[in-house]
Write a structure and sequence with these properties.
The protein is built from eight helices and six strands, in the order E-E-H-E-H-H-E-E-E-H-H-H-H-H. By secondary structure, it is α+β, with helices and mostly antiparallel strands. Strands 1, 2, 3, 4, 5 and 6 form a six-stranded antiparallel beta sheet that branches. A hairpin with a 5-residue loop joins strand 1 (about 10-20) and strand 2.
């Protein structure tokens, strides 16, 4: 799945959080129910029921989504995510099949609720999108950053209980873009391998749940809730200890660029 670039019409989106770099972005979930149905009292009630059903079906809080995070793809390409990795660069990376897919979870703003769903209220593709809450509990509107990749301005989420501390990379990754690129590719290979291992061990309908649970347990033990890249040495050691032989091979090939 990919972050939003130019979502039009009635696409519904939720806020995703990258487990590697802790960036936040909008993630398209699908097409929302047609607002033309919301006519009259009965129509509005039926439309609200459809929106709730959409949220329950698509905005899953326990699922791990694999997303082309623009920050992590900047890292994987050994470029500065704040200098030039914009919508154009992201599009080129996706088109050329170079993008890495990082594990992300949808964000909840109330522990008792599902992730909220947003709709772009701006119909003009040439103008800045206006994402507004359409279903659930969350900020009334969302502020995108200037990259036009669907990434949110992280500090704008501070009033809503989100930890907006900037990513603090360990010295070995902060000083060596190639080492950082290898780390991103390797952890993505581990996440994808974990999903593949779960698919082999479980029935198809429970494979994603098993993989998500395994990734959450790994991150909780190795990272204590912080972004994976901040504690990559510890996270990598635990990943290799838990990985199957095939997943370990995937990680090695990804680190060497053999993917």
């Amino acid at each position: 799945m990919f972050p939003i670039q130019h979502a039009m019409g009635d696409e519904g989106a939720a806020v995703s959080n990258c487990l590697l770099c802790d960036s936040y972005a909008l993630l398209t979930l699908g097409l929302l129910p047609d607002r033309k149905l919301a006519r009259g009292i009965k129509g509005r009630a039926a439309h609200e029921d459809l929106l709730e059903a959409f949220q329950e079906k698509h905005a899953l809080r326990e699922k791990t989504f694999f997303v082309a995070c623009s920050t992590c793809n900047a890292f994987a390409s050994a470029s500065d995510p704040d200098l030039g990795f914009d919508q154009v660069k992201q599009g080129e990376y996706l088109r050329d099949g170079l993008a890495v897919l990082t594990p992300c979870h949808l964000v909840v703003f109330d522990d008792e609720e599902l992730p909220p769903v947003y709709r772009n209220e701006e119909s003009d593709a040439g103008k800045k999108p206006k994402w507004r809450l359409t279903q659930g509990v969350g900020p009334a509107g969302l502020e995108l950053d200037r990259t036009r990749t669907g990434r949110l301005h992280k500090n704008s989420l501070r009033p809503f209980g989100i930890d907006v501390r900037p990513l603090s990379l360990p010295d070995d990754l902060a000083r060596d873009p190639q080492a950082l690129a290898r780390a991103v590719r390797e952890v993505c290979a581990f996440a994808e391998g974990t999903l593949a291992d779960a698919a082999e061990a479980a029935e198809s309908e429970s494979a994603e749940k098993a993989a998500s649970a395994a990734l959450r347990a790994w991150r909780a033990e190795a990272c204590g809730g912080r972004p994976v890249l901040e504690v990559w040495a510890e996270a990598r050691s635990l990943a290799l200890a838990r990985a199957s032989a095939e997943t370990a091979r995937r990680m090695h090939d990804a680190a060497e660029g053999n993917v």
